[in-house]
Protein: Bifunctional protein FolD
Organism: Lachnospira eligens CAG:72
Amino acid sequence: METLKGLPVANAINEKIIEEMKDWKGAIPHLAIVRVGERPDDMSYERGATKKMEKVGFRCTSYTFPADIDNDTFQKEFDKINEDEDIDGILLLRPLPKHLDEKAIENRIASVKDLDGISPMNLAKVYAGDPTGYGPCTAEAVIEMLDYAGVDLKGKRAVVIGRSLVIGKPVAMMLMKKNATVTVCHTKTVDMPGVCKGAEVLVAAAGVAKMVDKSFVADGAVVIDVGINVDEDGNLCGDVDFEDVAENASVCTPVPGGVGSVTTSVLAKHLLKAAKARRA
C-alpha cells in the first residue's frame, strides 16, 4: 500500500501561488482569522494558517475575542471585519461558543470573502458546480490529494462516509463534478461495510476513531481519511485503521500528515482567488 502524504501536495499548491505572486501588482492579499475563546484545536489551526500565509507571502491578521463575549458585541465586531476594504478573505474558526448565533454569521459573511465555504451562497455554488464559489477547504483538500495522486475519478465508484456540511456533502458534490458515481453513507446506512466495499475511492469523514477497517475496503481501493480523533492512548488518529486496511487498499492517507496538512494551502489558494476577484 502506498502512503499518500499531504506535504508534497501542499508544497505543489504553495509553489503555484508563489509563482503567481511574482507578477502581482497592488496590495498584498490579506487574510483575517477570527477566533473566539482559546480552544486548543482552533489555536493550532490558527498557527498553521498564519505560518502558511507567511510562507506564500500573504498578510494575515488574527482577531481574537474572549469566549464569554456577548452575541450583539460579537456580531458588531464581525461586521467591522467583514466590511474592512483591506481584508480580502475571512476564516472563522468554528464551532463558536453556544451562546453566539453562528447561523447569523454564516448569513452575514460576504460570500466573496468567505474562504471556507460557510455562507449559503458558497454552499449553493458548490452544489451547482459554480467555479466562482468557495467550498470548505478540507473538502477541497480531498480533491487536491486525489488529483495529485493521479486518480482519474471519471466513472469511478466513490463512497463518502459522513454527511456534514463541512466535509461529507460538499466532497460528494466535488467528486460528482469530477464525474464519479457517488454514494453517501451515514449513521442510518444499512450494512455500511458492504456499501463501502463496493467503492474504488473511499472518503472517511465520520469522526469516529479507526472505524474503517479492512472489512470496509475493496482490494485496490484508494482511501482518503479526513477524520481527526484521539485514540485510547491519547494519540492522534483518523477514522481509518491505517495498519488494518494496508492489506486491501492501494493508497491511503495518514493521520496526522495527510489531508489536514493540505487544508491551509487550499485556504491560501482561496485567498489569492478572492484577492484577484476583488481587484478585477
The chain has two domains: 24-115, 137-260.
